[in-house]
Amino acid sequence: MALPTLVAVPMLLGVLDSAVLGMLTPVMAWVPTVILFGLHRLNRRDESFLNVAAIKPVRPVRPIIVTSLFVIVALCVLPVLTEALAVLFGLKSVAVSSDAWALLPAIPLFVLAYAVLAAGEEFAWRGYIQTLLAPWGYWRSSAAIGAFWSLWHIPFSIGYVVSGDMLVRDLVSTSVNLFLAAFVLSGVRYLSASVWPAVVGHSLFNTVLVFVYSNFTTTIGSSADMTFWAYTGMSWLVWLVLIAITAQAVRRRTQVTP
Predict the structure, then answer these.
(1) The overall pTM is greater than 0.70
(2) DSSP letters of 86-134?
(3) Buried b (16+ CB within 10 A) or exposed e, 143-169
(4) Where are the membrane-spanning stretches (predicted)?
(5) What is the distance between the terminal CA atoms of the chain, rounded to a whole angstrom?
(6) Local structure of residue 220 (DSSP, 8 states)
(7) pLDDT digits (tens, 9 = 90+) for 87-132
(8) What is the average pLDDT across 167-189?
(9) Domain extents for the chain?
(10) Tens digits of per-residue pLDDT, 183-209?
């Protein structure tokens, strides 16, 4: 928490604008893994960092592929279902952007590009820390990691609020979204015994979800508070359904240690 807060302070003081913070995002994405690697070298040199972080082994490959396909399908269906329900209940209207279909073929490339940034966070959260918290079980470890993951982003979000690029309600909704998403990412780590499906899932958040939310319906950002929170609450219910499905899959797995 101290490091993201330190980075965000100049923005809070008005010394830097949000564009600079955006440029620092790729660097900050890898900070958790770099910190944990340094601590690992100091305290657990007899163990492989790659193994503890579940970066390897990548065999058997079948669970990794199957779980990656699960998270891909789930996180493609989730935003489509959310937006369909929003239109059905009158919270949004259909509004296909002029660039939507032109951008669609490039989405896989964006997913691959963002996976590089996602790996920097996931090697730490769903990789190394998930291994350390394995004795806590799926629910407790997911909640702990989700809470800290959400808190990690708050200093940056506050910076965007101060600069006028984000509303307080967006900060709250984004923080809860991260917390809920953590249960899905931790779940695919449990199901595959590998961090790689979590990397795929994290990359999809920044690509597929953003693409669907911003290209096929009206934006919710300028809506009245009641509409905003109705939409946000509905989206959380969709997340809870996905979490329930993921948790059920984890429960059925005979070996649930990451």
Answers:
(1) yes
(2) HHHTTSS-B---TTHHHHGGGHHHHHHHHHHHHHHHHIIIIIIIHHHTG
(3) bbbbeebbebbbbbbbbbbebeebeee
(4) 20-39, 60-81, 101-120, 132-151, 171-188, 195-216, 228-250
(5) 25
(6) S
(7) 999 999 999 999 999 999 999 999 999 999 999 999 999 999 999 9
(8) 97
(9) 2-252
(10) 999 999 999 999 999 999 999 999 999
